[in-house]
Design a protein that fits this description.
Layout (H helix, E strand, L loop, with lengths): L8 E6 L2 E9 L2 E5 L5 E5 L3 H17 L3 E6 L28 H7 L1
Antiparallel strand pairs: 1-2, 1-5, 2-3, 3-4
């Protein structure tokens, strides 16, 4: 299944309520809110899904909802294609190959 070509989540707010829209798959939208409302929408293609999403956003903004935040799908970029040079990137190069116990003794 193709990856999303648009942001993966949108957050709308109005007074003390929120609507969170998530796009976990290419043609699936999950809507949480307002309150306990939960809905799922599955689409046959990108055009159909985009038309629905834009229409929903226009309706929400015309009724007083504010687009508070957008989060892009980060996994789409596959930033970790190359392997790491060490098992734990947080360990400074000079400490690699030593054990925690020996580091304590050296201090």
């Amino acid at each position: 299944m193709p990856s999303p070509q648009a942001p993966a989540t949108w957050l709308f707010s109005k007074e003390r309520e929120t609507i969170w829209i998530i796009r976990p798959e290419a043609y699936l939208l999950l809507v949480f809110g307002p309150g306990s409302v939960r809905k799922q929408y599955r689409f046959g293609g990108e055009g159909e899904m985009q038309l629905f999403r834009v229409t929903m956003a226009e309706h929400l903004t015309s009724t007083g909802w504010i687009l508070w935040g957008v989060d892009r799908e980060r996994r789409r970029d596959q930033r970790r294609r190359a392997g790491r040079s060490s098992p734990d990137r947080r360990v400074p190069p000079e400490a690699r190959g030593t054990t925690a116990g020996s580091q304590l003794l050296e201090l």
